[in-house]
Design a protein that fits this description.
globular; alpha/beta; Alpha/beta knot; binds S-adenosylmethionine; 11 helices; two-stranded antiparallel ribbon; six-stranded parallel β-sheet
Length: 304
């Protein structure tokens, strides 16, 4: 989808939500004006409905803001790369990117996305996961030091595979390994660290001797601790992003605080950490604003 059509779709969504709110206002007036009717229980229902819509509207607004921020960062990265190499045409830049990705396939830090759990996901979640994999690949393409990415446990007869083919242009030419094998068919268990928000230990660094695994999951119908259980079944080490170590809770009207990120968001944080060596910088750049956390002031100052 082009940026223009994304924007107009968002605007349309926003407009229709506001229409819904107006509709509720009208319903409220109609109900309360009707003579001989007991308005109170209806009003309470209508008010509850209105509050629900207001909350949904606020959540969507914050999501739109995050999307905007992400697109801005992507644009900055793109223009940064061109500004660094003004002498190169688009074609040459493309060739350099392919070369960098090919190099990463043999010497880059290794990261698997474990796609063995998609059976428990709805069609909508599978579609969203396909979109997140596209973004993950897009970020890897732009990175100065890309990862060697492997999509593991991805069966050709699966819904996700079909959705990736449908939604992600050029999916079969992505410069990442796509395999039906699992991460433990490919790497010794003692080298694997499964990233999960429920791990006790925080990830300290990223290195060449470890294989990092992200759970290919989308949390619409929140399935708690799924990736942690998967890691326990595989008997591999686990680690969480160092959010407690570098971030603090930020007050917000919904009193909402979450440390669970989408696969591509975790990937962006890892890429930036590898590039800068700073968790504070990586979390500052990519931790979504709507999740109710900000980087602690002292972490920003020390820059670690
Ligand atoms: C949307 S999350 C899935 C959350 C899910 N409830 C679970 O069982 O973990 C998708 C993947 O992103 C990674 N992830 C998300 N937030 C993380 C965090 N705070 N620390 C480490 N990994 C995280 C994990 O690999 C996780 O499996």
């Amino acid at each position: 989808m082009s940026q223009g059509s994304e924007v107009s779709e968002l605007q349309l969504n926003g407009a229709s939500e506001e229409m819904d709110l107006l509709q509720i206002d009208v319903e409220t007036d109609e109900v309360e004006d009707r003579p001989g009717r007991e308005a109170a229980p209806f009003s309470r229902n209508v008010l509850r409905k209105q509050r629900h819509w207001e909350r949904q509207l606020a959540a969507k607004k914050s999501k739109r803001k995050e999307e905007k921020q992400r697109r801005k960062l992507n644009r900055e990265q793109d223009s940064g790369a061109r500004a660094d190499n003004p002498q190169f045409s688009k074609r040459v830049m493309k060739a350099i990117t392919r070369e960098r990705l090919a190099e990463a396939q043999s010497t880059g830090f290794k990261l698997c996305v474990d796609l063995s759990m998609t059976d428990s996901m709805s069609d909508k979640e599978v579609s969203r996961l396909a979109g997140q994999l596209r973004r993950l690949y897009g970020s890897n393409k732009k990175a100065p030091r890309p990862f060697h990415v492997l999509l593991t446990d991805l069966r050709e007869d699966s819904r996700l595979y079909r959705e990736c083919l449908r939604m992600n242009e050029g999916f079969l030419n992505y410069m990442m390994d796509i395999t039906e094998e699992s991460c433990l068919d490919l790497f010794p268990p003692e080298t694997v660290v499964y990233l999960t928000p429920d791990a006790e230990e925080a990830l300290e660094t990223v290195d060449a001797d470890t294989v990092y695994v992200l759970g290919g999951l989308v949390d619409e119908s929140i399935q708690k601790k799924l990736s942690f259980s998967r890691a326990t079944d595989l008997s591999v080490h686990t680690a969480r992003l160092p959010i407690d170590e570098y971030m603090v809770k930020k007050d917000n009207v919904k009193n909402f605080h979450s440390k669970i990120l989408a696969v591509n968001q975790v990937f962006d944080i890892l890429l930036t950490f590898c590039n800068t060596g700073s968790w504070a910088e990586a979390l500052q750049a990519w931790f979504p604003q709507g999740k109710g956390y900000v980087v602690a002031q002292d972490s920003k100052q020390t820059g670690t």
